[in-house]
From TrEMBL:
Keyword Transferase part of the UniProt annotation: yes
Residues holding carbamoyl phosphate: R54, T55, R104, H132, Q135, G260, P261
Pathway noted in the entry: Pyrimidine metabolism; UMP biosynthesis via de novo pathway; (S)-dihydroorotate from bicarbonate: step 2/3
Record domain Aspartate/ornithine carbamoyltransferase Asp/Orn-binding: where: 153-297
First-level EC class: transferase
The entry's keywords: Pyrimidine biosynthesis, Transferase
Protein name (database record): Aspartate carbamoyltransferase
Segments forming domain Aspartate/ornithine carbamoyltransferase carbamoyl-P binding: 2-144
Gene Ontology molecular function: amino acid binding; aspartate carbamoyltransferase activity
Catalytic function, reaction form: carbamoyl phosphate + L-aspartate = N-carbamoyl-L-aspartate + phosphate + H(+)
Length: 309
């Protein structure tokens, strides 16, 4: 087995293998074959220390469609509330003999810690503001469905970059594949020295949008902003919110993306969220295909993809 901790250290051939396998999985979903026995006898635990709708549900469905047994632990209903530590929780799950632990945690590095602490395969479903690799992969897969490739693609990532694990995984993944990344957002939500990663940073969102092929709009993460949002929500929407007028600066066929959940009317206007250019619903569908691909690859490793057909 192989842990999926982040895209910073994933190689280009590995990313390509996941994207190719996700294409096969999408075929299975389209043909409505919702039960294949590929992972029969395997068990997956979703261990989520933070809320989730998309990631948790799609991992559960992905596992079930491939024939695995999937169990969800929601930490608010677990012995974590009695003070059980992360290490002890992981060891408890390990003792039950599971094959994969899909984990979301508020601390950066939690997935890496888990991979050293216990033997099951660890899939990072988000660790603090660090990485959300499966989101990065589903975003890349969604782009590839609509664009011919990543080389020279201009991708604008807009909003709360500072708190965004989605931004980091997108930046690391897309740069490796040859895309050009343009960031925009308030200085209060822009990480220091982010330019050192080779991205372009803009103070004006209009400059990031100019001629963009993809516009990825991030959620304003109020729960991670202890001192409140600065600029205020109203100012943010006015200065950085993506509305039709701003979107018109991007290429006419620019793809609009958002990882969800959205603050509609704050970072994204409703008519942009539901426009023809929006790939937001497709991102969710593609998340299922990408997570099926990952579960298959980490458990069945070297076997040919034809084995599932
Ligand atoms: N995009 C994403 O991770 O959504 P959830 O928090 O609902 O899983």
């Amino acid at each position: 087995g192989k842990d999926i901790l982040g895209l910073q250290h994933m190689t280009v051939p590995e990313i390509q293998l996941v994207l190719n396998t996700a294409q096969e999985m999408k075929g299975i979903i389209r043909r409505d074959i919702k039960k294949v026995p590929t992972l029969r006898g395997k068990s997956i635990i979703n261990l989520f220390f933070e809320p989730s709708t998309r990631t948790r549900t799609s991992f559960e469905l992905a596992g079930k469609y491939l024939g695995a047994d999937v169990v969800n632990i929601t930490t608010s209903a677990s012995s974590v509330v009695k003070g059980e530590s992360l290490r002890d929780t992981l060891m408890t799950v390990e003792a039950m003999g599971v094959d994969i632990i899909v984990m979301r945690h508020e601390a950066e590095g939690a997935a890496q810690y888990a991979s050293k602490a216990v033997s099951p395969v660890i899939i990072n479903a988000g660790d603090g503001a660090h990485e959300h690799p499966t989101q990065g992969l589903l975003d890349m897969f969604t782009i590839l469905q609509k664009k011919s490739g990543f080389a020279s693609l201009k991708v604008a990532i807009v909003g709360d970059i500072l708190h965004s694990r989605v931004a980091r995984s997108n930046i690391w993944g897309l740069q490796k594949m040859g895309a050009e990344i343009h960031l925009a957002g308030p200085q209060t939500l822009m990480p220091r020295d982010i330019e050192k990663t080779g991205v372009y940073v803009h103070n004006r969102v209009e400059d990031a949008l100019e001629g963009a092929d993809v516009v990825n709009i991030l959620r304003i993460q109020r729960e991670r902003q202890q001192k409140g949002l600065f600029p205020s929500a109203r100012e943010y929407a006015r200065i950085f919110g993506i509305n039709k007028d701003r979107l018109a600066l991007a290429k006419p066929d620019a793809l609009v993306m958002h990882p969800g959940p959205m603050n509609r009317g704050l970072e994204i206007a409703p008519d942009v969220a539901y426009s023809e250019q929006s790939a937001i619903q497709e991102q969710v569908q593609n998340g299922l295909a990408v997570r099926m691909a990952l579960l298959f690859l980490v458990l069945m490793g070297g076997k040919e993809i034809e084995a599932i057909n």
